[in-house]
Design goal:
Length: about 400
Amino acid sequence: MSALRGSTGAAGGATTDRPDQPDRPALVLRGLAKSFVDVQAVDGVDLEVRQGEFVTLLGPSGSGKTTTLRMIAGFTRQSAGTIEIDGVDMTHVPPHRRDVGMIFQNYALFPHLTAAQNIAFPLEMRRATRSEIKRRVAEALALVKLEGLGSRYPRQLSGGQQQRIAFARAVVFHPRLLLMDEPLGALDKKLREALQLEVMHISRQLGATVIYVTHDQEEALVMSDRIAIFSRGRIEQLGRGEDLYDRPVSLFVADFIGESNILRGRFERDGEGGWLARGNLRWRVAAAQEDRAALSDGSAAAIVVRPERLRIVGLNDPAVAAPGVNAVEASVRDALYLGSIRKYELMLPDGQAATVRRQVGGGEREWQSGDRVGLIWAVNDAVLVADPNG
């Protein structure tokens, strides 16, 4: 399928090969902002995307991710800031001159055109030759594994097949950027998970630079090289999925990515590091975490511990008093069997709740509702963050 990456060889603005410049970002956003009357939808977004990188804009509804994508595409004009694609300022460039492929949630296929005609449309707009269109459409259909279905109309295709046709149409002219606005959101869970891998693999096969919008955390973790977490029109944190999950910089990120145990209290500093205190409960905070959080003594704070990092032990288990471990007495409220894992819901003495997930078949004791237990975690497994609501 390498021909999809080359020149159309046609006159009149057809896509041509561009020299490889791996050191130049594919996309640069500087101070990007958009306001609608009295609503600040996007508020000073800065982002650099490398060539061939798959970056996901992730966040709740209204966080600014889709508006940012539409500004990159040129469908929405920014109120402030700049957009550079392959080093070219796109501020005053209309959408059809930006050389960007776009896939929408509803696919936006032309119902009166066949699958092959839909794929051919961007090539026709670029005045590619008839033979070039025929060849590249055939290659695009093969790329998405829909050979032989080019003569069908969208109504004759399943949702998954329509999504693949939309993908083929977006990449057939080898755009500088491939933009996707929740393209799998309308599909059922099983098909969506299968297509996540297909989209990721095809994008890498093409060497495409992808900006992907979703509110599905698992989808973002599966597909992305990096993820930008959006909140209130800003990027709250940008990084690899592992970084966001293991080292969130804020309570919002910790709570939004994956399942978290959030234990709130007040930060207390001492000569060896610090503590999180809540009433009679005190948990040690690792020195590196204290430095990273940069909290003052007495500040409202929280420690974040993922459910798989917590362990349940007997109250007299030696692990409760082991060095480098935090412990608290708790009661098992619910013990749930979920197939490959067991999920325990626990209550702490101060009324806070905690969740523990353990792999079934690991040889660990099974706890029952009502059991009094010790809840422990390694000090280094917890992340300290400020608590803006404390």
